[in-house]
C-alpha cells in the first residue's frame, strides 16, 4: 500500500460516491480491504464525519456548566425563533428525545418522571424496537389527564419503546405515611417497585419551581401544606422532593406521604437526566444542580447564562 492509498480510497468512496465494491474493482483490491481502509481513514482522522444537527448547541456554555456543577454532560441549545418558535418545554423535550434515541435501548430500566416537559420528551420519541427494556413510574399520579401525567407518560413510553412497564396506582401525595408505605411495598399492585427503582439505569425528570411547577400547581396549590413548605425555604422540587436554594433536600410535611422514589435511591441511578428551561426557572434549576442530584442537564441558552450568572454572583 502506497502512502496515498487511504486518501485515495476515501475520496473515491466519499467524494466520488462510489460503492465499496466499485472502489475494490477500480483499484483491484478486495472489498474487505476497502472496508478496513475506510475504517482506518476514520481512525487516523483522514476522514472527519459530521452531521448537521436539527438545533444549535452552545458548546461553551455546556462545558462551563459541566465544570461548575461536576456534570457528566450538559446540553445547551438555542431555541428557534420567528415562525419556528415554540414553548421551551416543547423544544427541550424534542432535543432530549433526539439524543435518547441515538442510544440503542437494550437491557435497560428507564425511570420516567412527571410533568409537561417529560411528556414532550415521550411525545417526540419515534417508535423503535428494543430488547429487554422496562419502564417504571418514578412518582405517583396527578389529578388531571394530560401528557404530563405519569400514567400517560408510562403508557406512551412503553408503546414507543415496545417495552413493558410498571405503574404506581396512587396519587402523588396520600393521607399518611402508613398509606404511603403500603402502596410502595405492595408487590401485587406495583410489581415490586422498590426493586425496579433499585435496578433503574436512567431517570428522566423535570425540575419544578414554586411558581409554575406541575407538582406544586396540581398537588399543593392553596393548601396548608404549601404554606408550610414555603416557610422552610423551598425553591423547587425533583419528583416532589423539595429543596432550598443551597440544594439541600428538605424534610417537609409531605415527605413521608409522598409516593415517589426516595432521594437516596434516586442518587444511586447512574444516569439522572434533568430537562428544564426558561429563565424564570433558573433559581430552581441552580438549586437542583447544587444538590448533586443531576448528572445530565438539558436546558436552553438564556437559562444557562442566567444559572451561571447566579452561581458566580
Q: What is the topology?
A:
Blueprint lengths: L4 H11 L4 H8 L3 H13 L12 E2 L1 H11 L3 E6 L9 H13 L5 E7 L3 H9 L6 E7 L12 H11 L3 E3 L10 H9 L1 H4 L2 H7 L2 E4 L2 E2 L4 H7 L3 H8 L4 E3 L2 E3 L19 H5 L3 E5 L6 H9 L5 E5 H12 L1
Parallel strand pairs: 2-11, 3-4, 3-6, 4-5, 6-10, 10-11
Antiparallel strand pairs: 1-2, 7-8, 8-9
Helix pairs in contact: 1-3, 2-3, 4-15, 5-6, 6-7, 14-15
Descriptive terms for the model:
8-stranded mixed beta sheet; 3-stranded antiparallel beta sheet; Rossmann fold; 44% helix; 313 residues
Which strands sit side by side, in order, in the main sheet?
1-2-11-10-6-3-4-5
Gross geometry: elongated
Mean pLDDT: 89
- Strand % is 15-25%
What class would the helix/strand composition place it in? alpha/beta
Question: What this model shows, in words?
Answer:
The chain has helices at residues 5-15, 20-27, 31-43, 59-69, 88-100, 116-124, 150-160, 177-185, 187-190, 193-199, 214-220, 224-231, 263-267, 282-290, 301-312, and strands spanning 56-57, 73-78, 106-112, 131-137, 164-166, 202-205, 208-209, 236-238, 241-243, 271-275, 296-300. The chain is α/β, with parallel strands linked by helices and 313 residues long. The chain folds into two domains: 5-43, Arc Repressor Mutant, subunit A, CATH 1.10.10.60; 56-312, 3-Layer(aba) Sandwich (Rossmann fold). The strands form two sheets. The protein has an eight-stranded mixed β-sheet, sandwiched between helices. Strands 7-8-9 form a three-stranded antiparallel β-sheet, sandwiched between helices. Helix 5 crosses helix 6.
Amino acid at each position: 500500500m502506497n502512502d496515498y492509498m487511504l486518501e485515495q480510497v476515501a475520496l473515491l468512496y466519499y467524494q466520488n460516491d462510489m460503492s465499496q465494491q466499485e472502489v475494490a474493482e477500480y483499484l483491484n483490491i478486495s472489498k474487505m480491504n476497502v472496508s478496513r481502509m475506510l475504517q482506518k481513514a476514520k481512525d487516523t482522522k483522514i476522514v472527519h464525519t459530521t452531521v448537521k444537527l436539527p438545533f444549535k448547541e452552545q458548546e461553551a456554555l455546556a462545558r462551563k456548566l459541566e465544570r461548575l456543577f461536576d456534570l457528566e454532560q450538559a446540553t445547551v441549545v438555542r431555541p428557534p425563533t420567528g415562525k419556528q418558535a415554540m414553548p421551551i418545554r416543547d423544544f427541550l423535550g424534542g432535543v432530549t428525545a433526539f439524543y435518547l434515541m441515538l442510544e440503542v435501548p437494550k437491557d435497560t430500566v428507564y425511570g420516567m418522571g412527571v410533568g409537561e416537559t417529560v411528556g414532550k420528551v415521550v411525545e417526540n420519541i419515534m417508535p423503535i424496537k428494543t430488547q429487554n427494556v422496562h419502564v417504571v413510574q418514578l412518582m405517583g399520579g396527578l389529578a388531571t389527564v394530560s401528557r404530563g401525567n405519569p400514567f400517560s407518560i408510562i403508557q406512551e413510553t412503553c408503546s414507543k419503546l415496545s417495552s413493558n412497564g410498571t405503574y404506581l396506582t396512587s396519587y402523588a401525595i396520600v393521607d399518611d405515611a402508613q398509606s404511603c408505605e403500603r402502596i410502595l411495598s405492595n408487590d401485587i399492585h406495583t410489581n415490586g417497585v422498590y426493586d425496579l427503582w433499585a435496578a433503574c439505569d436512567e431517570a428522566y425528570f423535570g425540575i419544578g419551581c414554586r411558581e409554575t411547577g406541575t407538582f406544586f400547581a396540581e398537588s399543593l396549590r392553596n393548601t396548608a401544606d404549601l404554606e408550610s413548605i414555603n416557610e422552610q425555604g423551598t425553591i423547587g422540587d425533583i419528583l416532589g422532593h423539595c429543596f432550598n436554594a443551597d440544594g439541600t433536600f428538605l424534610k417537609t410535611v409531605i415527605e413521608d406521604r409522598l409516593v415517589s422514589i426516595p432521594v437516596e435511591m434516586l442518587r444511586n441511578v447512574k444516569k439522572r437526566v434533568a430537562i428544564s428551561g426558561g429563565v424564570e426557572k433558573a433559581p430552581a434549576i441552580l438549586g437542583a444542580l447544587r444538590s448533586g442530584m443531576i448528572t445530565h442537564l438539558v436546558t436552553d441558552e438564556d437559562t444557562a447564562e442566567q444559572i451561571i450568572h447566579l452561581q458566580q454572583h
